[in-house]
Design a protein that fits this description.
About 45% of the residues lie in helices and about 25% in strands. With about 475 residues, the protein is an alpha+beta fold. The protein has 4 domains: about 160 residues, no CATH class; about 80 residues; about 170 residues, no CATH class; about 50 residues, no CATH class. Strands 6-5-4-10-9-8-7 form a 7-stranded antiparallel beta sheet. Helix 1 packs antiparallel against helix 3, helix 8 runs antiparallel to helix 12 and helix 15 packs antiparallel against helix 16. The radius of gyration is 28 Å and the shape is globular.
Length: about 475
């Protein structure tokens, strides 16, 4: 039996910070909407807020003291809970993956966070998480897990620990034969073309909205109000500066997040590591990969670049990145087939896509104009004469409808199905028949008159069902795909 161990004391600090973060806005509301600047309520606020903070930090320390783990009988055993003791016994053969990450606190002390995923994980969180352990300890647990997967049986605890301690480094180096590393040039292009500026901008507006009661926006801008009203150029410069700043923040965030991105294949699993400030490592068993997704946004497509994801039947709803995993962040399209053969050889990328018929274009155009025409009409009527510029949306919408029509297509190669479509980005979903949970073939009354139909395939992932769909293909082709699946 291994002696019970505690995670590093940094875990207590991390737990306290997490609880303080969750309690931040309630505490702010308590301070803002309290009983005023004087009186009993003010005294209560003065005492209550520090007491709550101390209690949260104290609870984090108690939570750390009460959390222990050890390896015994081929199991990872965990006991936790401040008031109610919880015991979890996780057998190594039930574990699907061990994922590590390094936040700022962990990196300061040379530690890692180890997340354990099993078949019984709820989909909302991991089976268990060791928030702060040494890298050697994480390697020891990972080696035991790999040995169990390799041999297909569980040895005694002593044998497991001895074997993991004596395992030669050369074996691991031999296993990691296939390696892909994202170049800085392509990573920089990915950051510049990510479209993350919208996320940053909306996040900044939401953040400022939270502090509307604290920041005197009216007084702050009152002095320049007249100047702004009379200066269109000034407004344009301010908006341009804000957008440029948000663009720079989004670009830097992606560079930091995916720095040193590397993919390795070791036996029947893929190991992905990345990150500058927060280092993260994901382990993906090949049998848990449900589908492959190739994404080309409107900027990257003319440059010949695409991003490749794997849909993974692991991860959680709370951590979508662990279920929709970026396999190759940005690569030239002609390299996708070669790299896929190295890492996931059962998928065929370079196949001939069957297009949808020409008569389907009218339906694509109709769907786009149904959105664009009312918008242009409203803007033209209420914002004359400048609103008339919105009529330019009509040819833009027609071009977009054509792009969506041209992108749509399908292919069947052996036991593989490809479905390609476009909404904003062009998406190619590649399914293996054995992974498809459901296949839907739909024909509306409008489609039936011109012998068209729609097809969609669904697979499972940790964040919920994922699907690929093609609209308005030949009705006979839809039937062919349905018969292939049946």
């Amino acid at each position: 039996m291994s002696n019970p161990k505690r995670v590093h004391p940094v875990a207590a600090v991390s737990s306290g910070i997490r609880m303080l973060r969750e309690a931040f806005f309630p505490l702010i509301i308590l301070l803002i909407f309290g009983g005023g600047e004087s009186g009993p309520w003010a005294v209560f606020e003065l005492i209550a807020v520090p007491v709550i903070i101390v209690l949260l930090i104290g609870y984090g320390i108690l939570d750390w003291l009460r959390f222990t783990y050890w390896i015994e009988g081929g199991e990872l055993r965990i006991e936790s809970g401040v008031f109610v003791r919880k015991k979890r016994y996780i057998r190594f053969e039930r574990i699907h993956s061990l994922d590590t990450s390094e936040g700022i606190l962990q990196r300061l002390f040379g530690l890692v966070k180890l997340k354990i995923e099993t078949a019984g994980s709820s989909g909302e969180q991991a089976e268990a998480t060791l928030t702060a352990i040494t890298k050697n300890e994480a390697d020891r647990i990972t080696t035991i897990f790999n040995d169990v997967k390799r041999s297909g049986k569980v040895h005694s605890t002593v044998d497991l620990e001895t074997e993991s301690a004596e395992a030669p480094n050369g074996r691991q180096e031999q296993e990691d034969k296939r390696v892909f590393q994202q170049s800085f040039k392509e990573l920089f292009i990915m950051a510049l073309t990510s479209g993350g500026v919208g996320v940053v901008f909306s996040g900044a507006l939401a953040l400022f909205g939270q502090f509307e009661e604290l920041i005197p926006y009216n007084r702050l801008f009152k002095g320049v109000e007249q100047f702004i009203n009379g200066s269109v150029v000034f407004i344009f410069i301010i908006v341009l500066f804000v957008l440029l700043f948000a663009y720079m923040v989004a670009t830097a965030g992606i560079l930091f997040k995916y720095a040193y991105f590397m993919v390795k294949k070791s036996e029947e699993k893929i190991i992905i590591s990345r990150g500058l400030f927060e280092k993260r490592q994901l382990t993906i068993p090949l049998e848990k990969i449900q589908a492959l997704r190739i994404t080309e946004n409107i900027i990257r497509q003319p440059l010949g670049y695409a991003s490749v994801y794997v849909e993974y039947a692991g991860g959680s709803i709370l951590d979508k990145e662990s279920s929709q995993i970026m396999l190759f962040p940005l690569i030239k399209k002609e390299r996708i087939q070669v790299l896929t053969e190295q890492f996931i050889p059962e998928y065929q990328i370079d196949v001939k896509i069957n297009p949808i018929p020409q008569r389907a274009f009218r339906r694509y155009l109709y769907r786009v104009l149904m959105i664009v025409v009312p918008i242009a009409a409203v803007l033209s009527f209420f914002f004359r004469p400048m609103g008339s510029l919105s009529l330019l949306l009509l040819p833009v919408g027609a071009i977009w409808a054509y792009l969506c029509y041209r992108a749509a297509g399908w292919n069947i190669t052996g036991n593989q199905l490809q479905l390609r479509s476009r909404y904003f980005s062009k998406q190619t979903m590649i399914f293996q028949k054995k992974r498809i949970q459901a296949l839907y073939s739909d024909v509306s009354q409008f489609q039936k008159r011109i012998k068209l139909g729609s097809i969609s395939a669904v697979v499972a992932s940790g964040a919920g069902p994922r699907s690929g769909k093609v609209i308005d293909l030949e009705e006979s082709d839809s039937e062919k795909i349905r018969e292939w699946f049946a």
